[in-house]
Amino acid sequence: MDTSVKTREAAQTIDALITPSLLLDRGRLERNIQRLAEHARKLGVVLRPHMKTAKSIDVTRYVFPGEPGPITVSTIAEAEYFAGHGFRDMTYAVGMSPASVVRAMELCRRTGADVKLLLDSVEQADALAGVREDTGVTPSVFIELDCDDHRGGLKPDDPKLLEVANRVVAAGANLVGVLAHAGESYGLSTADALVKAAENERSATVRAAETLRAHGHACPIVSLGSTPTAHFAENLEGVTELRAGVYMFFDLVQHGVGVCGLDDIAISVLATVIGSKPEKGWVLVDAGWMALSRDRGTANQQIDQGYGVVCDEKGRVLEDVIVAQASQEHGILAIRAGSGKSMPDLPLGARVRILPNHACAMAAQHHFYAVVNGDSPRIEARWERIRGW
Amino acid sequence: MDTSVKTREAAQTIDALITPSLLLDRGRLERNIQRLAEHARKLGVVLRPHMKTAKSIDVTRYVFPGEPGPITVSTIAEAEYFAGHGFRDMTYAVGMSPASVVRAMELCRRTGADVKLLLDSVEQADALAGVREDTGVTPSVFIELDCDDHRGGLKPDDPKLLEVANRVVAAGANLVGVLAHAGESYGLSTADALVKAAENERSATVRAAETLRAHGHACPIVSLGSTPTAHFAENLEGVTELRAGVYMFFDLVQHGVGVCGLDDIAISVLATVIGSKPEKGWVLVDAGWMALSRDRGTANQQIDQGYGVVCDEKGRVLEDVIVAQASQEHGILAIRAGSGKSMPDLPLGARVRILPNHACAMAAQHHFYAVVNGDSPRIEARWERIRGW
């Protein structure tokens, strides 16, 4: 067991990095960003990436090498952070609450940003009049649609759609459009089903926009997206913008859905072997759920990846080795049940990289990315992440 | 919908708090701390609380109102943080890796702290000689025991136990004792089974200590503990210290095991209603897995609590209302399947408190506690938490 390890501050290579640590492969990140940008271009829509996965201005700079573009955020804290870095056109893609509206409007007043809000009820629409009065800012709002029974939003054919739109206008707010998220697409696993889910998301959203336009609402933005449907959409006629977030990093859930290969997954947790139980086929590492997250998103997929797929220190997948169990700071590596393989040699002090079930959840457990490229041990940069609300 | 909400900085009451926010009920915290302290006193053992749950110096001050006492930590970052606040006697309860040893010994040299390490192999024992040479500090080490096939550690009757002990001494390190953790007790649910698990943990640990003593090792510390066995132990003869962490806060998993009541659970997430789907019996709140964690520890218990039990704004349990689904920033509240009840009225903007499946995991998603007491809305203090490794 070699104990000549430097502290994190001095780390120039991953060999000297404290474990567990979050790695981000820059080459894979760039390739993933490029892939969806090209697809959006071909389909003739604006891409409005969701920053809830990366939560890092440094990642955003790879998405927008020039001027800051339109983004989606999942918290007002993200909106405040990205506004501080020059972003102006943002959609807060969570239904508005009393507190979030006030903070969003204060941010708009302070920075000149346009933070677009989501609502799906007349109560929320009616509250906008007071907001305008109190803050001096005219809120921009989307009506949230429900295209697949996933979560919130109005069905495209719900008569309340028009009522809510009228109340938004009556409150003096700016109705910018309709917005849907095909969240149920995460549960699919064939190209056919994904193409259909994408078309369902499109047709539902466009139908709602047409209803509003037929009643005098301009509805300039028709926004939809989820990482699976964004990649499988073949036609986005009538749609103006596409949203996706996890596509920058990808993960094992997206791999199980069929959107990416294992070699596209851009983040992993670097861990160190701290013990073994040869009689059980276990190798213990110092990455538990605190580093990997408790996400078990692959549990209901065709291949259950446990708490993550294990790669060697250079990022090469160790076939059928997964994190079988996780406690707070311990992970137990084992061979996937039924695979018939045996554990590779992973002595004390050896390093592994663990791919995430869910990139958003794994990344959220860390406060920075150690940026690497391919199998090189060199750390190119350290990128901070934000958290909180 | 009332939009007169202040920002987090100005919050004096939870009504003005940004949601989601982590609440900590001081009265419950004090009661839980008192309960196990008294039990340890009766059993005649030292209590060495695990700080992996609270990760906050302010919480620690309720455990040790006077001088800092002995604690357990799950990361070297915790050891560094608590050393900075005057703690000296610490056990790092994760198997040592090359990097963790070096950082721990550097901390000892710098501050005079005694950070005790864990090992269960001759390879780790042999590495200690070099550590002593490199850092000038004599490492204090425990041999980790495996009393219930939970994770790492040597079986008490494993011949390697003596070999490892001898190699520790040969490396010039200080063998301070043996340590076990009855992690499998989390899977139990009857008092009988818990009493038996506690006695098994005790007898296994004491047996190992006696073996070592019979061969000339002093083995002064006999350490064991898990929150369930710590509370159900009836006799700790031969044991010198007890460890537990989640007992300060408790959670739904511990409630399911039978260690605490719902009214003992000291932390919760305050959330705001942002929508509803009456036709589905859903109420949407702005706390998803980012605020609650992805932990589903009650999924395999007799009562599956979803992503958490829902209380009203004052902390009174709303019977059979749970967080049925969670996405990143959305929680879906619904009635527990089969309960026959109907959803209480939770209008837009209403606040609820959500109890955790797993306190360690929920707390880790937040960077501070808003400290409250009982059903009062007043915020008494804001306590920071640490994170990272």
Automatic annotation (TrEMBL), chains A, B:
Keyword Lyase carried by entry: yes
Gene3D superfamilies xref list: Alanine racemase, D-serine dehydratase-like domain
Entry's family note: Belongs to the DSD1 family.
GO molecular function, one term: D-serine ammonia-lyase activity
Lyase listed as a keyword: yes
Segments forming domain D-serine dehydratase-like: 266-373
Highest taxon of source: Bacteria
InterPro entries: Ala_racemase_N (IPR001608), D-amino_acid_metab_enzyme (IPR051466), D-ser_dehydrat-like_dom (IPR026956), D-ser_dehydrat-like_sf (IPR042208), PLP-binding_barrel (IPR029066)
GO BP term (any one): D-serine catabolic process
EC number(s) stated in the UniProt entry for this protein: 4.3.1.27
SUPFAM superfamilies given in the database record: PLP-binding barrel (SSF51419)
Keywords associated with the record: Lyase
Protein name listed in UniProt: D-threo-3-hydroxyaspartate dehydratase
